[in-house]
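Meet the record:
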Amino acid sequence: MSDITDAPATADATEVRAWLRECVATYVRLPAEDIDENLPLSEYGLDSVYVLSLCRVRNSKLQRCAR
């Protein structure tokens, strides 16, 4: 199970996609491999508060890397 605070510290797109897939899977209680990265997050029932939390955590990690 992934925690949104476990965002990868690097900006590698593959790692970010895998992290996001794990977060969504945990939130909707599905296996990560069942999450289609081509579907809008709203299709999985994610609300704007959760999505903004994901953005905040990811941006925080990226800012720390840039310093």
In short: The mean pLDDT is 78. The helical segments are 13-28, 48-66. The first helix runs from residue 13 to 28.
